[in-house]
Design goal:
- The protein is an alpha+beta fold and 142 residues long.
- The chain has a single domain, classed as Aminopeptidase.
- Helix content is 31%, strand content 35%.
- It contains four helices and seven strands.
- It has a seven-stranded mixed sheet with strand order 1-2-3-4-5-7-6, with helices on both faces.
- The longest helix is centred in the first third of the chain and has 19 residues.
Length: 142
């Protein structure tokens, strides 16, 4: 299955985006609900992934600073390249916008996923929302 990835409009689609994020981060991983939605959402570029039936199955966001975050794919749809498709689209958008570098705070369990996409670990492990993370960066230079 090849997911359909598109830019989502936060004001009109925030419910769909948050439904995915809450399912993954709050319900699965135990992140407190009040930490899931923040002041950056209104200014971020959000992506929404859907399957061939139009079911919304994944999301991610990009901030103007180059910060990639809130990457989430519903459990039943993992392992099918949806996360990679979301990440590649964010990288394309960042490059198109003239960013020279992007960065993210990866859960340690996902570090190898980001490494496969050219991200490099920077710094030590830190805890965010009770989960071990590591900062990772990727150059977008041609």
């Amino acid at each position: 299955m090849r997911p359909i990835i598109r830019i989502a409009d936060w004001p009109t689609e925030q419910s769909a985006l948050l439904t995915i994020r809450i399912a993954v981060f709050v319900e699965e991983q135990g992140v407190p609900l009040d930490l899931e939605h923040d002041e950056h959402d209104a200014l971020a570029t959000h992506l929404l992934a859907a399957d061939e039936h139009g079911e919304r199955i994944g999301t991610a966001r990009l901030l103007s600073s180059g910060h990639i975050g809130r990457m989430a794919v519903l459990a039943a749809h993992r392992g099918r390249g949806i996360g990679s498709a979301l990440l590649l689209e964010l990288l394309r958008l960042a490059h198109q916008r003239g960013l020279r570098e992007v960065f993210l705070n990866a859960q340690c369990s996902a570090e190898s996923f980001y490494e496969r996409h050219g991200f490099v670990r920077e710094g030590e492990i830190f805890v965010d929302a009770g989960i071990d993370h590591v900062r990772m960066v990727r150059s977008l230079a041609d």
